[in-house]
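Why should sequence recovery work at all? Because a backbone constrains its sequence more than one might expect. Tight turns favour small or flexible residues, buried strands favour hydrophobic ones, and helices have their own preferences. The token representation captures these environments compactly. In the example below, the structure is given first.
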């Protein structure tokens, strides 16, 4: 159907089909989809979530979509599509205050997904989940990084830093850079106060470099240099 009509007409059709009016998800409608099956799943999930929100008297707010998608991802058979939509709403619309408030439960759900899926067959899902975890951690306060719970969540992101899958490795690196750049501040003396996760990141990368004998080693070194310089 998409090939028979203009891009503008298709976006209008998709918007009407999903009945979604939240602009956060325009990317899901506008972007080119080489995988038509994935596109179908995303539109189907978005339509179902939108209907659920409206049936419950909701106003299609980012908070409502965030809560609905985070709940749905545990039980849906279309986890890749749900994770993609969750990534969109977390990165574009959900306020940091809500991400801090829901950090524990959200992280538990996302980490469970990482632990139960294979990088060889579920790369798209893992990429979205890593981005979600990155956004979740980026929203945390400076002081919260002194807690073991936050450092534990971060360890699950770090373990993909040398993934053999380039796309997963890239998502992991992007999330780490995003996290480390989120809390850099300048003190009254003009000194830069670095992110409290810098030391944990350094320790993990040094450990991986010492053990690394596979192909991604040179890529890992480039990543380390990109952080330093």
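From this structural description, the recovered sequence reads:
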């Amino acid at each position: 159907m998409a090939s028979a009509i203009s891009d503008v007409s298709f976006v209008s059709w998709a918007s009407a089909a999903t009945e979604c009016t939240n602009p956060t998800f325009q990317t899901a409608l506008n972007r080119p989809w080489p995988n038509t099956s994935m596109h179908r799943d995303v539109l189907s999930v978005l339509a179902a979530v939108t209907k659920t929100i409206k049936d419950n008297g909701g106003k299609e707010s980012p908070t409502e979509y965030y809560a609905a998608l985070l709940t749905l991802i545990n039980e849906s058979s279309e986890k890749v599509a749900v994770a993609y939509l969750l990534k969109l709403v977390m990165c574009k619309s959900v306020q940091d205050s809500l991400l801090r408030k829901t950090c524990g439960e959200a992280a538990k759900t996302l980490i469970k997904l990482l632990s139960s899926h294979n990088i060889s067959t579920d790369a798209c899902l893992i990429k979205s989940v890593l981005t979600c975890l990155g956004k979740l951690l980026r929203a945390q306060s400076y002081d919260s990084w002194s807690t073991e719970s936050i450092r534990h969540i971060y360890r699950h992101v770090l373990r993909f830093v040398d993934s053999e899958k380039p796309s997963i490795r890239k998502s992991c690196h992007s999330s780490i850079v995003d996290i480390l750049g989120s809390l850099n501040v300048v003190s009254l003396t003009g000194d830069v106060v670095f992110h409290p996760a810098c030391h944990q990141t350094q320790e993990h990368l040094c450990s991986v470099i010492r053990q690394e004998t596979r192909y991604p080693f040179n890529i890992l070194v480039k990543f380390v240099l990109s952080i330093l310089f």
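A few observations help interpret the result. The CA atoms of residues 100 and 141 lie 8 Å apart.
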